Amino acid sequence: MSAWTKLAHGVTRLLLLSGLFSMALGAARPAAAEWLLRETAIMGTRCAVELWTEDHARGEAAIEQVFAEMRRIDALMSHYKPDSELSRVNARAAEEPVKVSRELFDLIALALDYSRITNGAFDITYASVGYLYDFRKRIHPGREQIGAALPAIDYRHVKLDPKTLTIRFERPGVRIDLGGIAKGYAVDRGIELLQAAGFTRAMVNAGGDTRIIGDRFGKPWIAGIRHPDDEGKIALRIPIEDAALSTSGDYERFFDEGGVRYHHILDPKTGDSARQLRSVTIIGPNATRTDALSTSVFVLGPEAGLALINSLDDVDAVLVTPQGKVLYSKGLEPPASAQ
Ligand code: ADP
Ligand code: MG
Hints:
Layout (H helix, E strand, L loop, with lengths): L13 E3 L1 H4 L12 E9 L2 E9 L2 H22 L7 H8 L5 E2 L2 H16 L9 H4 L12 H7 L8 E4 L4 E4 L12 H15 L5 E5 L2 E5 L7 E7 L2 E11 L2 E7 L4 E4 L2 E4 L15 E6 L2 H25 L4 E5 L5 E3 L11
Helix pairs in contact: 2-7, 7-8
């Protein structure tokens, strides 16, 4: 990838800098054309769509269509909603094969592919232990509780039958959760809808996951990555066009206890929060991929995480260590003269 970056200290999660965008407007454009930006809360997070439109009503309608699509995906895949397809799988798949929609089947199959390439760092069965945490109520499981539930974490317990579109768990106690990939998927679906409707300059964002098509009339979009300990501080700015970007951080859902941070990204091998990094940002071709890989690299840690990203041709990464050091994948390393 050709994106350049500048070194900065203590990075983290993505904020899109709407203020900067207006400076990028230039050149001739139709009188009624405009940038439209709308935000709403879906999937337990802030979602936003921004697009360039020559017809205000069409722009508004397209944004509503994207939000409706995100709500549809949430209703299908949320583990908070007892009547979602995913909840039905969790309730019954240890007893019998559960038939699901092609869409859910395919996303679960893709999630299992990420488990394979990350050697199990990305694992949707993390939820077999994950459900014992409640970050709002400051609850984490003890050692014994984790020990009892841990054998149920293993993506190989999830058996897919493509002929019948059924899912089965090989043992009791297995639960799956798509929180590490579903937001990116929803962002990609949103972008596809906008492309099908003919929009060529747009941004779709859901929490830490964003995808962009087109530029801002000759200038790139600017993604800001926040400081891990200061929400208001932008630590790093990354210009992007026609790309996706996801950030995973330990400051999204967490509580601190006795100097230890309990947060929402779990190491499937231990059932405990992953603590080798503070934040991971992945830049790549689509948001499903960058979402899954940001969670993966967060668990893998700096060494194995960068090795994975450097082995993949279409993605790059920016990592922040607990010491505040910023690490880059090969494609983003500043030229020697700039260091
Ligand atoms: P967010 O945008 O919600 O901060 P991330 O992309 O950082 O999401 O992923 C964190 C979410 O991924 C968690 O809230 C949880 O639902 C899920 N998750 C946690 N640990 C793992 C793991 N080891 N493998 C796959 N998914 C995970
Ligand atoms: Mg992710």
